[in-house]
Structure of Thermostable hemolysin:
Amino acid sequence: MCQSLSHFNPQDALQRRLTLRGVPLQVSLTRRGDTDYRHGAAFIRRRYWLSYGARPRVNAPFLVVLKDDQGHCRAAAGLTRAAGQSVFLEQYLPEPLEHCITLLAGVPVSRDHIIEISSLAADGSGTGRLLFIAVTALLPHLQGDWIAFTATRQVRNIFHRLGLGPVALTTAEPGRLNGGHECWGRYYDHDPQVMAGQVALGHDRLVQAGWITGREVRHDVVA
């Protein structure tokens, strides 16, 4: 991951408050070894165990973490730049990630400008929406033009409700994993798909919908 990301302040991108049922949420971008990273990774493992009986490894270089005013983690997701390395979801793909996205985009796309979002976890759909809003607000500042991620049916529904339209590249099949599929419990029962989306397009849609530029981004009713 590039050095500019390691020194990035999320508040430079997200000046608006995120609020869930009246409780303000703070966004942090934290790296491996930081206290917030350890808390975020523990939260992800706990949510995956509760939701799927899964025991995922959380090893993304960076985590986006949403915490409430008591310091409790409410949502988290990993960020990994694809430049110079394979990313986890490429195990599901028939060819390198940049080739798949190039076919989708219709123009050449470099690995240097792709970020994998992984280990998406939240304690409710309202918190999940706020996590996606925060990540979308941050992405234009992280030198990534495209994102790729694996999304269950529930996660895809959250994107749909936000007006975002990532495109499915393929179904995430456990048989394609290079070992370790037994750690994923019931995860594959939830129809995970490998998705890709253009950062600028997603950001513009949320800005136009008022999710990023409003005085306060609230989810007082979790649906």
Observations:
- Residues 40 and 189 are 25 Å apart (CA to CA).
- The chain has six helices and nine strands.
- The two ends are 35 Å apart (CA to CA).
- Strands lie at 17-20, 23-31, 62-67, 73-81, 114-122, 146-151, 167-171, 193-198, 216-219.
